[in-house]
Amino acid sequence: MSREKLTEIYRLLYDEFGPQHWWPGETRFEIITGAVLTQNTSWANVEKAIKNLKSAECLTPEKLHHIDTEQLANLIRPAGYFNIKTKRLKNFINWLFENYNGNLTDLESIDTDRLRAELLAIKGVGRETADSILLYAFDRPVFVVDAYTARVVFRHELIAPEADYEQLRELFESSLPADTRLFNEYHALLVRVGKEFCRPKARCRGCPLEKLPHTLDPEYF
Ligand code: SF4
Question: Is the confidence at residue 218, as pLDDT, over 70?
Answer without folding.
Answer: no
